[in-house]
């Protein structure tokens, strides 16, 4: 199953990019034997200043057809790592070809796109720089 990170913003060269590249390399190495990967990063940027709705439209276009969509949102479900792994495995085992994770901009993900997602997931109450 292919994984897609659909992200508002562009990552510039620096420590965050190095960290992401390292984790993507690790995932590619460990995920393929499990039927997971590759991971594609789709960066979108609202250059016209249309706000969350414009960002949502760009994110929606980055989602592959038929993908199971998980919106990363502070109001989402908090789950331990084994449950998160089970969520991914369940989609893979059901024959799903693609799984997309949405990461919004500074103001988050527009409510309509957030509600349209199959799953809303939170990594905790704290809000982190979205590229992390």
Give a structural overview:
The chain is α/β, with parallel strands linked by helices and 132 residues long. It has a single domain, classed as SPOUT methyltransferase, trefoil knot domain (Alpha/beta knot). The chain is built from 4 helices and 5 strands, in the order βαβαβαβαβ. α1 links the parallel β1 (2-8) and β2. The model has no long low-confidence stretch (mean pLDDT 92).
CATH topology: Alpha/beta knot
Tell me the number of strands: 5
From the alpha carbons, calculate the radius of gyration and give it in angstroms.
Answer: 14 Å
Q: What string gives the helices and strands in order?
A: EHEHEHEHE
Which strand-content bin applies to the residues? 25-35%
User: According to CATH, what is the class?
Assistant: Alpha Beta
Number of helices: 4
Oligomer: single chain
Largest sheet: 5 strands, parallel
**CATH architecture annotation:** 3-Layer(aba) Sandwich
Q: What's the overall average pLDDT, rounded?
A: 92
Structural class: alpha/beta
Number of domains: 1
Note the overall shape: globular
Helix content: 25-40%
Distance between the termini: 23 Å
**Main sheet strand line-up:** 2-1-4-3-5
Poorly predicted runs: none
CATH superfamily: SPOUT methyltransferase, trefoil knot domain
């Amino acid at each position: 199953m292919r994984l897609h990170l659909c992200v508002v913003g562009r990552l510039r060269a620096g420590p965050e990019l190095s960290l992401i590249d390292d984790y993507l390399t690790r995932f590619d190495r460990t995920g393929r034997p499990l039927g997971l990967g590759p991971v594609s990063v789709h960066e979108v940027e609202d250059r016209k200043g249309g706000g969350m709705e414009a960002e949502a439209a760009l994110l929606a276009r980055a989602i592959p057809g038929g993908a199971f969509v998980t919106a990363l949102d502070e109001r989402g479900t908090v789950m331990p790592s084994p449950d998160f792994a089970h969520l991914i495995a369940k989609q893979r085992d059901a024959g799903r070809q693609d799984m997309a994770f949405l990461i919004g901009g500074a103001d988050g993900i527009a409510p309509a796109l957030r509600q349209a997602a199959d799953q809303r997931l939170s990594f905790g109450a704290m809000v982190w720089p979205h590229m992390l």
